[in-house]
Amino acid sequence: MDGGTVASDLDLPSEAFCELSYREYEFEDPDLEPLQVAQDPSGRLAAGIGATVWDAGLSLCKYLESPNCQDALQGKTWIDLGSGTGIVGLVAAQMGARVVLTDQKIALPLLEVNINSHRDRFPLSPIKLQMDWKEMAAASTQESGLGVIEELSRLGAWPVDGLLVGDCVWFEELVEPLLTSIMLLADGPPGHETQVILSHDHGHNSHKPGLDERIFGTIDLRLDGALRRVPMEDLNPRWRDDTISVWHGTLHTRRNNKK
To answer: Do the beta carbons of residue 6 and residue 127 sit within 8 Å?
Structure first.
């Protein structure tokens, strides 16, 4: 995979770097150097929630270090959806995965900062790619094809071995486009399998009774029940909470695949 970045050059205002805060991520393996993940509380490099390291993302990172994922990352191609700061994808990359970090255009500058500040330590340097789930969902209904899939193929990142979704399903309006994107990205040659690991902080919607049940009902329906909630005892004891869930499952190539 090409170790460079994808997308056009981005304007990074020099004064913004003075306003970044940093969150350290320590690996369970003492041989792995901690990450220093830039956050953007001032909103100079990214927008809103994508500029912060959230607890559900950290729970997902720790799950990636667990025995359940021991053989899933090394040398495999993973896409991090809605990367935000990029912490989930960067953890996977430092553990040996080939990672494509994706988000909307407005979030790419912060991703670029975090990729570049850690680039020398990765076995396979991660790349960033602009991806909008609504645009992917709309393109899937057209015969013109999907530019994102074509770009992944050009980069040697297709088919995909796994998809990471860290704390991205709390906003109901985006669930259907996200699920369509997941199904498109998980497609591949006959017999291909793609793992999906997803985390969610149920505290986001605690003030909206029934919303999380509806969201996860939609996920279960659209993905044919492929995802199963990871038992609490399989999560890192220092990074688990009743309000945070982690889900893991495998998607299989659709029967109508014509690739």
So the answer is: yes
